[in-house]
Every structure is written in structure tokens, then in C-alpha cells.
Amino acid sequence: MTREVGRPADNGSSRNSSEAEILAALWEQVPFPRLPVDAPSEIKDLVVDVENPKTVYAIHCASRRHNLQLLIEKFINQLRHGCGFNGCTTPSCFSCRKRLAGKAPIRRYSPASARTLAVFLASQDDADSRLCPHLPSPTGPSDSMKSLMFGPRYTTPPNDATNPTYTSPVPRSKPPKGSPGRVVSKGGQAPVPGNSSLQASRRWSQAKTEAPNGDSLPSSNASPPVRITEKSVSKDYRSFAANVFGTVAFKMLEWLTPNNMEAMAEKVEAVRDPLSITVGSQATTSSLGDDNGRISPTSVTSIPESEKPIAMRSTPDVHRFTSSGVSSRSEINGLYQRAPSEHQSVSNSNSVPQGPPSHRRNSSTRIRTSSVSKSHPKTVPEPLIESITDEAGSLSPSIHTAQSEKASKGLIRPPSTIARTTSELGDHDDHSIPETKIQESDSPNAHAEDHFPQMDGVSGEETLSSDETTRSLDTTDERQDTLATSDTVDSPSELDSYLPQSLSRLSLQAVNFICDVLQEDATSERHLLEPPIITGSIRRSSNRLKYWKRKRKSQADYPQDLKVQWKLFVEQSIFHVLSDPQALLDSFTSSNGMVDSQTLWYCMLRLTRVAPSLVFDSLWIALAGLFAPPKALRSTKSPTSKMFPRSQRSFSNAEAAGLMSVCFHALVAAAPLVTDSRQLNDMSRIRAHGLSLTGGGAVARPPVSLCLQYEDAFTDDMALRLARRLLRVIPTRRHFDELVELDLDSEDTVKEPDVLEILLSNLESSTQSMLNFSKAERSLHEKRIPVLLLDWARAVMLHEWEGKPDVSGDGPFGGALSLIAAMYQKRQSLLLGEVHFRAEYFGERLDPIQIPVSWLSFTSTKQKVHLLDYSYIFNPASLVSYFRAINFSRMSRSYEESASLQSRINSIIAPDSLVTETHHKNVLQDLLKVPSAKYLILDISRKNVLRDSFDQLWRREERELLRPLKIHLGEDAGEEGFDSGGVQQEFFRLAIAEALNPDYGAFTIDDRTRMTWFQPGSIQPEWKFELVGLLISLAVYNGLTLPITFPKALYRKLLGEPVTELHHIADGWPDLANGLTNLLEWNEKDGSVEDVFVLTYEFSTSMFDKPVTREMEPSRRTSWPQFSEHPNSAPLSADNPADAPSVTGDNRNAYVSDYIRYLTDVSVASQFAAFARGFHACLHPKSLQLLSPALLQNLVEGTQEIDVGELRRAARYVGWDASHQAVRDFWAVVKRYDDRMRRRLLEFVTASDRVPVGGMANIQFVVQKNGEEEGEGGHLPTAYTCYGTLLLPEYRDREVLRERLAMALENAQGFGFA
Question: Which end of the chain is more exposed for a tag (fewer CB within 10 A), N or C?
Fold first, then answer.
């Protein structure tokens, strides 16, 4: 986005001089916007004169087009010819391609292909960085001119049937059949005067005269007018690129460059006055001509026969903002005839020479001045090149005529108060607006109080003083040379009256007024945003502010010329304010900070519905100032001062957040206006999938029209361009903050808050809107802003993503991820849920096996980050898949290592091996028995499940724990079970149930919630807690769910997240959470906290039926007392404090925070630390970063709610189908079961009473026919829990089925039971 500092300058001094020449010429030619005469008196206090040419919107548009042409010319030269440097490394440079190809043949790009790629490269952000640093500046005409032929235009068509050309003044879209060439269509382009183009245009203008009716006539020497035709070339009309980029409109991007303009002028002169050409020139021309003698130059600009030349009287880009209500050409042409005769009354001593122009002593910007002479008619100088494009067809540029050349002789130098030197015009970056000397008050928000009054203000009328609001842009340059003037020079005051005008800032009244003007005059920009206009039902105003109206004395139709004046003035005002960072801050800030979010959104909504492209482009320019480093990095003592230029103004993080807030609200306002929050969320979910429309499924189906409106808004090129630069600001500002912290010279400076923290705090603030919004509208706005911010962040991510999991961390993608991360941290206050942050588009396109495994070894840096570092953008199913893929990869690696070692051992102990001693073989086998084992095998008896588990897991190596688990359960008692998952489920169910038994004194179970928690000060040793954690870790590692219930606070602590809020403990201790909530919300008007709650500042718990109390301390090193093994030790309750301070209204917040800390941390610190060590034994620490506390809880515990309907849909059948009567009877019986019996059935078939994460779809539930039972007795239903199969006999009726199934479920235990 910003220009590369390290890139070598391209002819620095000449470039600045050329830029100054261009600005000077444009300043003389473009129409000046002025405040119309019928403007309300209130707006006049906000009007200022614009003296800087770069801040004139018309000049900005023309300069931008000119720079695009030059950039495309460089890219074409780079693509087709290269830089000539043997070591070039620029991929798009022909020299680099030639170097990489070596001796292999290489094909150059064709002109059409080069033009296609050049237009693409020039349209990218930071296009200059894609230029080859060794590329020389183009010095001659380009190859695109070779297709043009020059010849005289005859009054009657020549008798040449083989080569007809167009003679109609209206260009056609297609040449006649059999035509070898075509006349180049007309096209518009802004003036591009440089040293060469000015000279070429002037020479061209000398050779042409104009008749009164506008037709081109021969000049006094009877030279015929010139006709330009294009050679016929073969083109594949089925090719999209050939038909788009091969049109005249795109070719003109090459033709209308200064080098081509100069060559074009020479060829025109050669055609008109062949006698003036030397013999050598004639020979060259003849070599370039065709068979008919026409001149075919190597580089000329397309100037075909045309109608009457159209002078540039309208603002550039007028075709984009023109509506049917205004005739953009004829009326604008008549409107900008300057009142005084500006140029014709100046003496010949100041005339422009006819030969090549010499450099002025001071290349300052010149203003069009007026003369006191009244004897000449009003006239306006013709521009060098016409800049109007018709939507019906491309029009070629008009040629500068002799009349305009004569008129331009009357230009004089302006006084020093408004002069701009070359350095002032050219030294600034393309994306920044140079600062001007502005006379302001000390406070940067001195004027904001007036146009954005606060709600508690006293005055209901807005009062503005001209002295306070008008900023004078006139500066005095003492170095200015003495100006060449004549007796007819105007006074400085008279010159000032012809400067462009603009609003100095925008207020709520000004925004409403200028938007209403464009809507009433039907001169607003045509766009696809919805709603297209803001009607009375949406329009808002403040009762405290007066409504501005234009002064209209009659009810007649509003004059068209005034409509055009208002259009130009409004566009200039919008550009002048929105492209200036300081003007933006002055417009939307007050002494209390930024204006409220809803008022700011409304202002952006109004502006984006009348001129969206102008608004987005202006804000894009304003954001360039945020890339300037802070003052601390540019101080003379700072080691980083030499890295950054000092000319740019720097902004603090608070100011940067204010500018970013304005831009974000503009993007939010571009989205369709949705009045239903549910529809807003539905559209967000659709966009998260990367879809424009949805075909159903889990995603909602809003109206198709709304989906298309969203697509139009989020794919708007100008809006996306703004969003990319806006998100790029975030990592840039954070890098600046890091540099400031590392700067030793800034140790004493106060650290600024993060820019995103300030930005989000503005969104969280509950400042009441100064506009009349209803309560429902305010509630909808609180939801709209964060949801659409996430939508824009995802839109940029989808646009920038290249299909790889590692993305740029310091670009727009990294900025979007940083914004989402900051909003995720504050999701509670922003009213956002987990689902709002998901972007399923990425999860659906990443490899679920390879990507998470490669992520383990990936190290994120500032330049590169991994998508899995931001796990909350993926849905839970994808995260569980990634988590299990990591575990499976580690298990497979451990298994393969053991298998490889075992195969080598077998080869060693083989009879024909080199080791012949049997004793040596046995010793080797014993030593390598553990490393070579493929599985982790546990032999468990049913009588001592927990003890056998502890004995066999104690002191196991990590490589053993990572192997696949095999359980032999009850085999000592004759049970037979093949472990395919069911035996493991049975083992963990028995072991965990015994380990969490409260009778052992290690854990407690809440009587109400049945939640399990650690016993404070437990008598059990810590190694047992570690083994319990290891058991749970093994289950999770092997993909099993457990019949346990822990509060979410445990899983937050296991993931390293703090437990500090009441909602963190609400599920485990609901009564305690309600009591503490009542304490915090208590109104002391109804009684003091001490008298009503009677609490002391201490934490109390029951330890083996004895209360143990300790006074809470804020120190983090506080430890909880543990039971002593010494028989004579004093009981813990003996140290209970006799007197503790009371809880008051002042310390109740601290009391609640400390109580939560003692409950979840201090009282169980040692037990939890041991449990956490065991839990992390089998799980990779980085893999746990994929999980949220809720997802980890679901992964460990599963879901206890069993939906019979979902279970039936997931079931499969063997021996019968779903329509069989016995199957229907089975589901009818199961549907009548309560929760306890449903869990028993699930445990009977799958060995687990929990639904695993992912739902019933992840359960294997097979109902297999197991014979027929005719009588009332018969076999009971049995199950293969290893395979999740229920063996169900076909009973006589439903009652027998109910009775036999209930008996089986109530008495099932062990394996082999029937």
C-alpha cells in the first residue's frame, strides 16, 4: 500500500519537476469548484479556499489517470523488453525470465498479453514494488504505436475501394467487412503535460484550426487535416482477454503517454507539412509507411477524425457521477466560462513561445487570473487533451487548437501568497497530502464541540464563528522570485476570489445538507449499494440543530448550471475533508472523544449513498498518514530516526484509532441495511462459508435479493481496497509500538494503549446518540457493528488467501486476524458468540491430516502466522478432527518406531544370524522388550481395577504411553473380550468411577449438580492425583469419552485460561454464583452490605466435616493448609481466625474476585498441579491450543443428553431393515425410556453412556437379528460392545420385547453374559 522506502528513486529531480509541471498545467485548466450563490448562510462559515493543487479533486483524478498510464507503460516495457541486467530477480521482468530460461528459447509477450498483465499489475496495491529496480525509464515511443497509420484526410473519400476508412463524425463499433484498418475511437484522458508532452501538444495545436461550426478546416497554408487509422490484425473473438484488453479504450492507456504524444505530434506535422521534413526524415518516414504512402510511426497517439473538440469543462470522472438529470457536457461547458477575460488581455511579452518550451525559473503553480480589460469576449483556454468519456462509446481526445494556444498566452504568475514551488508539489508521497500552515486553536478538537454538541449541552442552536472555523491555506514564500507582471495584473484580493473552495470539515448538518442536495438534484453517483438513496423513513436529524436549506425564491425548476455547481462543490468538499486525516478528526471528534458510533455510522451511510467511490478513495488516501512512525521513533536521539522521513506528520494511537473508526463505519455503512438481527446473523454465516447464495442445509436461506446485495457490497473494488489498507494499519501500528518499547531513548515516555484496544473501547462505549433513534434501532446497531466488522475481516481474508495454511502476518490478512483476535477477547461486551468468529471456508479446504501435523513444527513470526494459531475461526468438528489427527500421528510414529526395532531384533535372534549364543539372544530380547513393544497393554482384574491401573501405569515412559492401548479386562476370571474399543470403554468407566469416589477423600461431588471437584487439603498423596490425570489423558489420547462431570473451571485451568468471572463458576457452584451476584448488584439504598449480608473477608470450606477458614489475602503466594501425617499435629480448624474484617460496599468487588481465586486456585493448588501433570503426559501442549474450554469438556465428557430420534437415524441393521415390525417395536419401546434407561441402553451396546463429540453420527450402533423366540421366555438381548452391535431376537410381540430388554439392561455386567 505504501511506497517502498528502499526502492531507488526513478529520476528523482526530473520526476519532481515533471510532477510540478503536470500540477501547474492542471491547475490552469481544470474547473474550480466554488460555493454556489444560493448556499445557506450557515455553511459559509465552514468554507475555505483550496490552494494546494493536490487537494483539488479534479486535479487528483487527472493526476491519478496520468500516473496509471506511466505505470502501465513501465510494466509493458518490463514485460516485453526487460531491464537488461543479467542478475535481475524480478519475476515479471523479461531479463529475469531470460536468465532463468538459460539457453532454452523464450518467447516474448505479445502487445495484447503484455497490456493485459500490465493493467493487472498496475491495479494491485503497492504496484510500484512490482517494478524492476533496474528498469530504465522509457525514453521512446512504445510498440503499440506500430499499428497506427497516419495520412491526410480528404474532403471526399479517395477512390480506393481496397482501403476504406471511416468518415462519419460518430465512431462505429465495428469496421465494414473487408476493411484493412479502422479509425481509432475517441477516448478521454486528463492532461498529461510534461516537458515532452507540452512541447508535442503545442506543435500539434499549431497545425490545426477550427471553423466556427466546430469542423476542422485547413489552416492558412491549406494543409489537409490528419486521419489516423489502425492496421487490421487477426484476433480471436472467442478470447475474453483479446476482446477486452485489445479494445481502443485499453490501447489508449499506452497511446496517451508523454513519449507517444511527442512522437504523435511529429508524425502529424510530417503529414501536414511534408516540405519541412529533411531528406533523412523523409527516408525514415517512407520506411515506416504502408503501400499507399501513409505514415506508420512507431509510436503515436490515437487522434482520429472527430467532431467539434470538446473542452474539459467538467470534473474528471464525471461519467461516473452523472445522472440523467444533468447534461454533463454542454451545460458544464457553458457554466465555466470565467467572468473576467482571463487570458486574452495580457501583453505579448508574456505569451507562450511557439517553439519548444523552456523551463521557468520557478516552476510554481499558476492560477488563472483575471484582467481589468473589458474589450475581449469571455473565453476559456482549451485543454491539451480532452478528459470526457462517453458511456455509449470511447471518444478520442481533442487536440489543442490554435485558439486555445492563443488563450493560454494570457497566463500570469500568481502573487507569492498563493504560489507553490516545485518542491512543495512534488516531494510528497503519492498517498499523502502535504500539510499546510493552518491557523488553529491549541486543542485539536476545538471546533468539534460546535458541530457535534454533547447531549448535556445547554444551547440548542449550533453557533459557529468564522474566525474559529475558517482555515486559511495562504502561505507566504519569501524565497519566491519576482513575478513577471503587466499593467493589467489583478490585485491579490481579486486573485483569491478565483481559488477553488471547499468545506473545511463536516458536521452532522453539513452531511445531511450536501447529501440532500445531490439526491434532490439527481446528481449522485450510480452505485449498487442498498438502499440506493436515504429516504425520510431512514433519514435522521437532531432536534437541537437547525436544518439547512438552499435559498430558492421561486418554485420553478432548479437551474441545471447550479446543479452542476453544487455537484462539483460537494465532491470537492467530500474529497478535501475525507482525504485529510486532521480534517477527519476535527469533523468526528469532540472534547469527549469520538462521536457516538450510531451517529458516525449514519453520517457514513448518507455519504456512501451519494458518492461511495469518492468516499472510499478519499478515506484510503487519509489512511496513508497512519503509516508514518510516531514522534518517539523520529527523534534525533533515537537509533531509528534515520529509517523514517521527518516530513510526514505522525499520529498517536488514539488519533489512529479515531481515523480507523471512521473508515470501519464507512465499510459497515456500505452493507445492505438489514432491520432484523436474525437475518444479519444468517447472512454472516453464509459469508463465513465463502458463499454468495446458499442451497439449504445447516445454513439459513435468506432472500436471494439480499444475498446479491451483500455480494455487491463486499466485492466492491473501492471498498475492498479501503478495507485492505485499513487492516494493514493494524500490524504496522503494533510494529511501531514494539520499536518504541525497544528504543532505549523512550524509557521515560508513557506507553500508549494498543490501537485495537482503543478502537474496540469506542465501540463498547454506551454514549447516547445525538440523533433520534428508537430503542430497537440502538439495540440493532450494537449488534450490527461487530458482526459486519467480522464480515469485512473475513472478506479481506478470502480475497487475500492463496490456499496455504501459513499466511502473511504483517499484511491485510494478518491485520484481519489481529482484529478478529482482539474482538474475540472482548466478545462478551461486544455481544458476540463463538459462532460469529467462525470462517468455515478455510476448514473445508485444508487437509485435515497433514495441516495439523505440520503445524506442530511451525513457528509463527511477525511475517508469517499459521491459521491454526487462531483456532476459533474453525468449527468444533474441524478442530476435533485436527486434534485427533495430531494424536493419531504421534501414535503411528511411536508404533512404527517400535515395529521397526522389533523387526531388527527378530533378524538378530534368527537362527541364521551372526549372534549364535542363545544366552546373548535372550539378554538382548529382555533389554529391548519395552522399546520393541508395539502396544501399551494393561492386564486389569475386575476386583482391583484402580490398583492394577496405578501399578501398571506408574513410571511408564512417554514412548510407551503414546502407543496404541490394549486392555485385557477380567481375563483372570475367564472373560473373553476382543478389544476393538468396547473393552477400553468398560475399563475407563470402572477405573474413573472408583478414582472419583468421594469416600477416598480425593474428590468431592456436589449434591445438586453432581459436579466433581478436588478436596481442599486432601489426605491422598499427590502422585495419585497425577495418575488420575494420566488415566483421563490416556482416554482422550485414544479418542474415548468418560462418564465424569467436571466444572468448566477445571478445563479453563487445564488450558491456561484464568478463572476470574462469576460465569466461570456458575455451572459448578450455581448457588454460590447467585449469592455473589446478588452481593455485587445490591443497592445500598435498601440497606448497607454489612447489615444485610453479614459477611467476613475470609474463605471457608469443609474438610472431613470440619470447617476450615482462612482470611483471604491478595498475595498470589498464599498456600492452603494441608493435613499433616504427624499424629500429634494440631487440627487445621485450630488456626481459624477469631475476627476477620467485614465485607462492605467498598470492598465487595475485591471480595468476589478473591473468593473465586481461593475457590478454584489457592485451596486446591497442589492437587490440581499434580492432576495437570498427568493430564498433559500424553497430549501435545500445542494440540491443546486448538480447543476451547467448552470443546475440551465435550471431548472428555461427551454429551449426556441422548436424542432417540438422532440415534435411530444413525443406526444400521443386519438381518432385517428399518421397516421390519420387530425394529419398529424396538424403537417404540426405547422412545418411552427415561434418561436413565436410555443411558443404560447406550452403555449396554457401546460400553459408554455418553454421546461423543460430534453427536450420534460418531456412534456405531448396529441392531442385528439374533434368531426368533416364539414363547414368553427365550434368550435375552446381548451385545458386542467391541463392535457396538445389539443382538436382538425377534420376539412374539412388543410386550415380550419390553420385558426381556429391560431385564438385560438392568443386569448387564462383564463380557460373555447372555
Answer: C
